[in-house]
């Protein structure tokens, strides 16, 4: 799946994945279902490394490193490169300066500024800073 997403990022300016779901079959295989929305606005992606952290295929224990990773850089160095939706759950895919892509949920703390992700939409993430100013990451 990450190879498929990798190809989309390099062929289409911006992609949003919505209504993502997966289930196991009786033969120990998985069925993946998702809507892929191709967005018009381009995203400047230099290099992307998919990290097996805070994503639907990762155990919770390994996701803890994402918190440290997302808080180690200033918000202006982070780019929104994708959007995931599964039912009522929305996640934003953020590209860090290291090339790592991480998934964040509402309530996540990001950036050295310790901003809180307060809203995730298909084309933007709203982050509320401790002094109540808002910082917006757009695709």
How would you describe this structure in keywords?
139 residues; alpha+beta; SH3 type barrels; four-stranded mixed sheet; four-stranded antiparallel sheet; globular
Largest sheet: 4 strands, mixed
Question: Looking at the structure, what is the overall shape?
Answer: globular
Number of helices: 2
Structural category: alpha+beta
Distance separating the two termini: 21 Å
Number of strands: 10
Summarize model confidence as the mean pLDDT.
76
Rounded to an integer in angstroms, the radius of gyration calculated over CA atoms is 15 Å
Give the strand order, joined by hyphens, for the main sheet.
Answer: 3-6-5-4
Oligomer: single chain
Strand content: 35-45%
Order of helices and strands: HEEEHEEEEEEE
Helical content, roughly? Answer: 10-25%
In the CATH hierarchy, the third-tier topology is known as SH3 type barrels
CATH architecture assignment? Roll
CATH class designation = Mainly Beta
* Sequence stretches where pLDDT stays below 50 over 5 or more residues: 43-55
Q: List the domain count as a whole number.
A: 1
Notes on the structure:
- By secondary structure, the protein is of the alpha+beta class.
- The protein has a single domain (2-138), classed as SH3 type barrels, CATH 2.30.30.830.
- Helices cover 15% and strands 45% of the residues.
- The chain is globular, with a radius of gyration of 15 Å.
- The protein starts with a helix and ends with a strand.
